[in-house]
Amino acid sequence: xxxxxxxxxxxxxxxxxxxxxxxxxxxxxxxxxxxxxxxxxxxxxxxxxxxxxxxxxxxxxxxxxxxxxxxxxxxxxxxxxxxxxxxxxxxxxxxxxxxxxxxxxxxxxxxxxxxxxxxxxxxxxxxxxxxxxxxxxxxxxxxxxxxxx
Length: 149
Hints:
single chain, alpha+beta, Immunoglobulin-like, 2 domains, 5-stranded mixed beta sheet, 3-stranded antiparallel beta sheet, 1 helix
């Protein structure tokens, strides 16, 4: 049995002419759908914004070789300036670490003992902040500790 087509593949001009238009329409609809999905994800908090962390003071002077307790105020907020409650803040370095949890105003005080070894005149503390669902914040050598001469 032989099948016969009345219109040959090369004779059908509608398919060839309409193909670019169909591709353009499909791309436009796809781009609109993608834009609406990304807009929803960024506005609804599905993709969280990075944290903004400030430490005060960023330079602390200590005297002598003995370990001294030093305090730092840490403020945590998002990029829009909203305070982040219950963020875990860790200051570490120079052989010690301190931890704090932010309050409703996005602030906490972190206290830790620091000392500089004989012959060392400066050192640095690292700051790490965790506040799910935000991405973790880590900054090495954010706070400088200097020995008073």
